Every structure is written in structure tokens, then in C-alpha cells.
# Entry
Amino acid sequence: MQSLQFRQFLKGAALAARPQSLRQHHVSVQRPQLAKAASQASQISLAEPTAYNKLKEVYDYLQSLPPSDRQEASNEILSTLNSLKEDGTLKKFGKRLEDGLERRNVFIGELKRVGVKVPDSIGKLSVRNDAAFLITVVGSTSVVAVAGQFLPGDWGFFVPYLTGAISIAVLVIGSTAPGFLQFFIDKFAQIFPDYRERVLRHEAAHMLAGYLMGVPVTGYSLDIGKAHTDFAEAKLQRSLIEKRLDETEVDQLALVAMAGASSEAMKYDEVLGQNADMSDLQRIMLRSANKMDNARQQNMTRWAVYECCRLLADYSAEYEALQAAMKSRGSIAECIRAIELASSS
# Structure
């Protein structure tokens, strides 16, 4: 019953969406500066009854459904986005697919030419946040333990032992079940001044790549550790484990998976957010119908990063406008509109 109601709702939304809305509310984002993009993004309003209003209603309805119904609903979201693309409203949805993708051998030196600051950092798991967390915990508890010896009475006995036990417990958990510490490590990472910018660039790159590759984006988060949209399953409209992927699907999903890490690599020497991206890419390659040996997997990683860097450069205005919309916690419809109204030179 909910599925039928949802289809009827989407049908009405698609019929009400007209391409004229883009001509009436054109916003140009030509400079790469995020400050200017933020100013322009603030002018993007969904107050008028346009296709984007209807798109926002569709996404709001999706979020109101129980989690068990959202997988089926994502198929309807994809149909709606394709419908809006066909009538000219969403000109950039799936645009990168139209440009064509051709996998080839990519050498490490080529990554430097497309903007990667330190090509060797790709594929190397970052331990900066983990190391900083452990050093802080061990260092602070050691100081407290030493100082505790000077406390009067039994406190001088118990405090050093208790604080020392904290360090030992953290080290034991970190070496045997590091996943239990990830929440605290992610929270601790926020003390770094580049934390928010890294997360924003990373998640915006995933969303932009997904949108340009025709993936129905259903949500986003700017908080590390929170659940993010599973682009692979949204693209396939089924669980990744249920299907072997052909070469085209592998190429498309590889770009979406590595977009976040690529955006960091273009800005920073160390890529902190690539751990999850590399894990997603590995899952995709393992589901390939054509088995990949180690050499092919390494080349696939380099090629995906290479193409992602080109994508972010080709759609730089869209990328900056999307970051501005996401920074202001805009809805998915507002993010989509920011992409559509931006114009790369």
C-alpha cells in the first residue's frame, strides 16, 4: 500500500516539474572560491513552486518511510530523477556517463598532473587520528598517575593504578578490537583545524560524483562515523552481494567510491578519509564478473583517482556550489539545485 501511494506521489511530482524553472531562476557560480559560492547558494530558495519543491517533497516523503521500505523507494527516486532529466530539468544528472568512460593503464606520475599532491599517499591507510588519540590518552593518564602519587592517604595509592589501567585498557582494545575505539577516535579528530573542511570536501565529492554518474543520492552527513548513502546499492537497486558486476558497472561505482579520497588528495599531503573509500572499492572489485589480480586492482585504484580528479576539475564550479549548500546543511533538493545552477567555464 505504501509503495503504491509513493508511486502516485512521485508521478504527480514528475508531472509538475518543468524545465522552465531553471531558466527563471538561473544562478551562475563561476569562481572557485567557497566564500562566493556560499553567498550564491544562499540565494537558492525553494519557496517558489518549482520542480525542486516537488523534488524536496519526494525526498521528505522518503525520509518519512520506515527503513525497511526505503530500498524499494530508492528505485522510485531514481525513476523520478531520470524523468526530470528527460524533460530537461536535471541536465547534469548522469552527465559524466554521457561523456564516456574508458579504463586504461594509469601510471603513478600521471596522478601528479591531475592535481594529486602526493601520489604515493593513495592506498596508504592513514593512522594520524589513531596515533594522536593513543598518544593523548597514554600521555595524559601517565601525567595523572605520576601526580597522583602525591595525593594524601589512600588516594595516592589508587589514583596511579586506576589511571594506569585506563591506558592499558585502551591499548588492549586498540590491538584486539579497534572498531570499539573508532567512535572516540572520530570525536577526538575534531580537534584538528582541518577536520571540518576535510569532511566537507570529502562528502561533497562523493555526492557530486554520484549525481554525475546517475546515482540516486538519498542523504548525506558531515559527521564522520555516521551512516552515509550506499551509492553502490543505490545504483544497482539491489544488494551488492546479490550481483556480479560487469566492466561498466565496476568503472562507474569505482569513481563514486574514490571521489572523496581523490578530493582530499588534491588538497592535502595525507589522505585521512580514504580508509572507508578503499574498503568500498575493494568490495566493488571483488564483485567484478572478470576477476582482477593485484596488478589490475592497483591500476583500477589509480585510474579511479585519476578520473575523479578530472571530474572535480571539470565541474569545479558545481563542486564549490555543492560544498556551500552542504555547509549550510541544505536539503538534498537544494544540493541538487546548487549543482544544476552552477556553471563551470
Q: What stands out?
A: The first helix runs from residue 2 to 16. The chain has three domains: 2-91, 98-126+193-341, 128-190.
